[in-house]
Design brief:
The protein is mainly alpha-helical and 142 residues long. Helix 2 runs antiparallel to helix 6 and helix 5 runs antiparallel to helix 6. The chain has six helices and no strands.
């Protein structure tokens, strides 16, 4: 009986995980949610609303790097339909989108060594944030 109840609870959960793993819209939303949460934490540090923490700063940039590595592949043909804020320009100007993503990756890589100090972190976030905004302006629907 316990096994049946446990199975009844786990099967829907497992199905949700499988769907999320095969759904590029769900995957990119998950990546952006994680990046967004880290960016919110970074903003609090930059604004002085939260204390600077070198380990947290490194974790933020690790999330950015890992997210950027996954992100480009999450926009296959046909994934422009559905519950998404991705702008049609991603598919009509794929080279531009790929270039914007490459600029973000480059900004993260070029600034990751600066996050070891509060001032360096602020500088690094300014550079990375500029690339985030540039990409969102062209490739995200409002």
């Amino acid at each position: 009986m316990r096994i049946a109840v446990l199975a009844a609870l786990l099967v829907p959960l497992a199905a949700t995980v499988v769907v999320a793993q095969t759904d590029p819209i769900a995957q990119r939303k998950a990546v952006m949610k994680e990046i967004g949460e880290q960016t919110k934490a970074a903003g609090a540090i930059v604004k002085g609303e939260a204390p600077y923490d070198a380990a947290k700063a490194a974790a933020i940039f690790k999330t950015y790097s890992e997210g950027a590595d996954k992100f480009g592949a999450l926009f296959p043909a046909g994934s422009d339909k559905g519950d998404t804020k991705a702008a049609p320009a991603i598919w009509s100007d794929r080279a531009g989108f790929d270039a914007a993503l490459a600029k973000f990756k480059a900004a993260v890589a070029a600034n990751i060594d600066k996050v070891g100090t509060a001032d360096g972190f602020k500088t690094a976030m300014a550079a990375v944030g500029a690339e985030c905004r540039a990409c969102h302006q062209s490739y995200q629907q409002r």
